[in-house]
What does this fold into?
Amino acid sequence: MTNKLTCLHNADGEIVGYFSDHVAEMAARREWIVAVKGHIKGCRSTETAIAAAELENVEPGDGDRVDYFQHFADTTGSEAGCKAAAWLRRGASSVEVQRFLINKYRRPGMSARDSDLGGPVDAAGVLYVLKIKAPR
It folds into this structure.
C-alpha cells in the first residue's frame, strides 16, 4: 500500500514535517513564514509517495537510497532499527534513520523533541525515513 504525504521544507531546505492533514500543514506554514530584508520566505512542499523500498544488495558505487517505514501508532523504533540492520547486512555502509510524527511539525527556534513539536495533540502515526548509504 502506498500512502502520499506532503513533505514541508523550510527556506533552508530542512524538513519541517510530513502531513496528511491540510489544517496541520497550513499551521506549520504560518509558523515558518520569515521576513528577511523585506522578502517573505515561507515553506515549499513536495508530495512524497510513502512505500517501503525492496530490500536488496547495496553494491559499492551505488547511489544513496531512501526507504520509508510507517506506523500508525507510536513505537520505540525497534522495527525501524531491524530494517536498518537488514540494509547493513545487505552491504550498506551506513543507514541514517530520521523519525517524524505525521501531522506534527518542527517549530522555528525549537528542538525536534516530541514535546516541542507543533500541531494537533494526536499524531496520525510515525514515519521513519531511512537514508541508505552505499560503500564507495
Summary: The chain has a mean pLDDT of 88. Strands lie at 3-9, 15-19, 34-36, 39-41, 44-50, 65-71, 94-101, 126-133. Residues 21 and 103 are 6 Å apart (CA to CA).
